[in-house]
Amino acid sequence: MRSDAGRDMAGDSAWTIEFDHYDPGDETRREVILALGNGVFVTRGAVTDSGQDDRHYPGTYHAGCYDRVPNQVAGERDITESLVNLPNWLPLVFRPAAGAWWRLDELGILEYRQRLDMRGGRTVREVLAQDRDGRRLRIEEERLVSMDDPRLCALRLRLQPVNWTGQAELKATLDARVINANVRRFEDYEKRHLRVLGAELAGPGVALLSVQTSDRRATVACAQRLHAGGAGDGGNEMAGCANEGQCGHVLRLALREGECASVEKLVALCSSLDPRHADPSAAALEAVAGAPDFDTLQERHARAWERMWADVAIEADRADVLRALRFHAFHILQTVSPHTAALDAGIPARGWHGEAYHGHVFWDELFVLPFLNFRFPAIARASLMYRHRRLGAAREAARAAGLRGAMYPWRSASEGVEVTPRHQKNLLNGEWMRDHTWRQRHIGSAIAFSTWHYWLTTGDDAFMQDCGAEMMLEIARFWASIAEPAGDRYVIRGVIGPDEYHNAYPWREEAGLDNNACTNLMAVWTLCRARELLGMLPAEQAASLRRRLALDDEELALWDRISRRMTVCFHEDGVISQFEGFERLEPFDPDCLPPHLAGERTDWALRALGRNPDEFQVTKQADVLALFYLLGEDEVTGMLRRLGYAFGREDILRTARYYLPRTVHRSSLSRVVYCGALARLDPAQSWDFWLHALETDLNPLKGESVQEGVHLGAMGSTIDILQRRYLGISATPQGLRIDPAPPPGLGRVSLGLRYRGLRLQAETRDGCLAITADGGNAGPLHLLRGEERIALSPGECVEMPLPH
Ligand code: BGC
């Protein structure tokens, strides 16, 4: 069945993203939108005729390829771990004989069209250009990063002179003279991470470049093979060139007016981070030698994408909605694909598309995993294995802090130690600000949450028993050790919540806040689930785990006690306080910022004025509301009841209405969190936020810093909200619960999902949510609807009326 029932509800236009004119000022943003990748490496959609300059930033990044270098920042030595910009494999430049090399920026552009074809996973740029001598040339460039063979990528250039005939040259090179310079805020950091090991010609039309990262010594090799066809056939001559950090070939072509010549540049990129490549240079040479021609490569690549799209299986009748959802799925899958499972890499917040946050892994995976759990369980599992392999580092971090269990780092890269830089630069006044965001201990609960939901959705007991349970129990143990008794309750001090504008109390010397509601309640959630998990595992497994972790009854009783007596602070009117003392801060008046600072980051603007966001009731992003996004109304109110606090539905709304005007949404995760939290309470507002989130990376007016990478968390959450909140499909310990609440405006949508090895399709139509069990399912699919249990045999369908 897969997604065929709903196929192409909105037609083909929802498969493409197009630009119909060249805008050099927008290129670095488009490079990210048009980036291509296969879960092993991603290449930005930069022009082939430029290096790094103020308009272009060619970048290629390999999953998990970080390097550590020392930096002198704010007078202190700090080691920064950064995702490394690898050699540029794109260079492919043209010139008429003896002329200057053509650069798009220096030509007259008469026609221009560039498009991303998401279905086929490729980009096409078509240009009609004219040089100063009036020579006109049609140029078509096609590009792909193979999803079929994750070592390969390719460019094909078609050249058609419009009003001239003559000799021309094409130069195709690999270029290692690249640095990390994508992010302006990082200009004071060391930008060099690569040492060139070799740049050579390795046979007719073949060049090989190999580099090594400076500290971590990862080796990356690129091999290129050039092939010319079309009008120049037979008469082509090729000359090799290799010098400092560059190598490749120059091809002489005889071009004829009106005739099309084509050149294919096939490149293999292999790294020592991939266990399949013991010798990356040999692997790259072998891959490029065995690579088929562009058409065959493209055909196989398209087939690999077709299989993945069949599993994505999202359809909607609104083309704008469908295009954005596909765009989100596309970039998630270019960052993590079935190929990533062979590597040891997490889910970076901004994709492998740019250098924002140095490519680090945060809690954002939490927002991406629901999409993967229900469609690509192997990819989801691989990202959790990245966390599990770093459990030792998390245990060590807890021990070093005088705590127990596992304390995962807020920002993680290669080793799983904390990599949050010590300072951040305020670009408005040049000040280096101390970065306290590492205090976001809620990361641990995010990992526990992802582990739990992966298990509930996939039924992967082996993973839970071998790896997941250990992580969850150790994270729970950490919460029990950081929670301190205070009177008849427990408190958690010295942390910060998701809202990074509040790091310290204006009235207290040391940084960190007390009783952040999101942290405390997610700690309670983790403690409860860890205990519940022990009851759900086979008794023998649970007992052996407990023995291995020395988890005795007394410790479990403490977990239970804390989960009943954790502190949550409230304001007088019953609003949940973001942290203890939030109401004592000064109200924030956005109009207090002078006009020249009004559009700037609020924390920077306040500091530039000699003030500090810590003093104000202004939050960067949803914080308390993250609880309702993640857990839903019933679970949060249930937990509050368990803790002895009365809190009802109207209090949730009151809490949301209190924080909304105090939130400046300076994280792409802010609106989506409100969106999910308000799905039932305020569907119209939720819908507005959802539409806004769909445009995070596509609309230049709505997204920020897209040129530094996509916003994977926001991308994943638009899909999570659609399936879990709007269609109301969630995996629970009791089974697959269906409780739809689509907002007005959603229209027809259809999702194909996998739940515990069974496939189903959920589709809104004619006031109903229809759930169909795939005809190929091995057994019945059990659904929960209120108190009712519905069993769907393979091929059966049930229709549930949607609430009005
Ligand atoms: C947000 C975090 C997020 C990070 C990476 C920050 O701006 O405050 O919540 O994890 O970006 O996306």
Polypeptide structure, described:
It holds the Pfam family Glyco_hydro_65C. Belongs to the glycosyl hydrolase 65 family. Residues 735-785 form the Glycoside hydrolase family 65 C-terminal domain. InterPro entries: 6-hairpin_glycosidase_sf (IPR008928), 6hp_glycosidase-like_sf (IPR012341), Gal_mutarotase_sf_dom (IPR011013), GH65_N (IPR037018), Glyco_hydro_65_C (IPR005194), Glyco_hydro_65_M (IPR005195), Glyco_hydro_65_N (IPR005196), Malt_Pase/Glycosyl_Hdrlase (IPR017045). Residues 20-272 form the Glycoside hydrolase family 65 N-terminal domain. With 804 residues, the chain is of the alpha+beta class. Among the domains are: 1-33 and 313-375 and 666-804, no CATH class; 34-310, Beta-galactosidase, Chain A, domain 5. The protein is built from 18 helices and 31 strands. It has a nine-stranded antiparallel sheet. A hairpin with a 2-residue loop joins strand 29 and strand 30 (788-792). Helix 8 runs parallel beside helix 10. The longest helix has 22 residues, at 461-482. It is globular and about 85 Å long. The two termini are 29 Å apart. The model is unreliable at 1-6 (pLDDT under 50). Bound molecules: beta-D-glucopyranose (BGC).
